Amino acid sequence: xxxxxxxxxxxxxxxxxxxxxxxxxxxxxxxxxxxxxxxxxxxxxxxxxxxxxxxxxxxxxxxxxxxxxxxxxxxxxxxxxxxxxxxxxxxxxxxxxxxxxxxxxxxxxxxxxxxxxxxxxxxxxxxxxxxxxxxxxxxxxxxxxxxxxxxxxxxxxxxxxxxxxxxxxxxxxxxxxxxxxxxxxxxxxxxxxxxxxxxxxxxxxxxxxxxxxxxxxxxxxxxxxxxxxxxxxxxxxxxxxxxxxxxxxxxxxxxxxxxxxxxxxxxxxxxxxxxxxxxxxxxxxxxxxxxxxxxxxxxxxxxxxxxxxxxxxxxxxxxxxxxxxxxxxxxxxxxxxxxxxxxxxxxxxxxxxxxxxxxxxxxxxxxxxxxxxxxxxxxxxxxxxxxxxxxxxxxxxxxxx
Length: 401
What we know:
This protein is an alpha+beta fold. It has nine helices and 16 strands.
């Protein structure tokens, strides 16, 4: 093959930091055209030049050196150039550009793949035992996640219990919301053995600032025994928090069977600026594509607009920020570090719908350093030692070993 007819495929691999997405752009350099390929009126040449001028802008956005820093702004520029190039290449007379643009964005989302997350194999046996002690807490159609601290003590989020009380007081079906039940074996279709709260009046809850609730359970039948053959997770609790890296969540998102997810921690140094930028970018996307915005379409699902003001003003003391797809029903899930220790409990976030997909700006877990400190101050030190077997030292954002 002659040099002027040779084409080379140039794979360009960029990693976009937001939401851990990787973007791959495959671009073919245009071959040199022969004189016979150009029409007599020169239109073929001008059309080719017009298309290639846009395509070449993908290269113009590239760093001039491999040592040059690939910033988020540069990544966005390259992605926009690639999108515009696709529009210019594919658009036909009479075609709605907005519809085609939406299709291109969907293709980009389909082929943009999450970065691979991995945890040490040595932690898997410990996690395998611990996941059996994570349960679904349920009252009617109101659900959450909990886990076993001691043989007859569970912990969950206070707002989970409060939501159940609210549903019970507002419902006309008193039987449906009569009891609060816990199931540790909901891993497939069967719920398994049912446990109930011993006394709903004796629930140790946070002071309003910390979202946790501790209560006792017994088997919900004539046996009235406590859970057997389950690992007590109180001894798994630790206070030191990693500044970055990965965590593992175990819970019942969307009231479904038990799931495990590996998640990326957001840096403790700049999580708030990341949250605000994501809120701004998501709102801008809604303005550019109002057909996908739930607020503009007066639909019941929430959109990013409900969170932007709160995200800009929000403060999350004693909470660990991370990205996860655990939303409704997963509050109360234990958050494990890569050593198999429980460092936080999943509590809240900023979920919304982007088109038909449910996403989140950011999610948070209340730290066990803060929970242990609060239990120690409001109750007695012996309670902390009983629940967690060893006293939690409050060393917020200390590097975990």
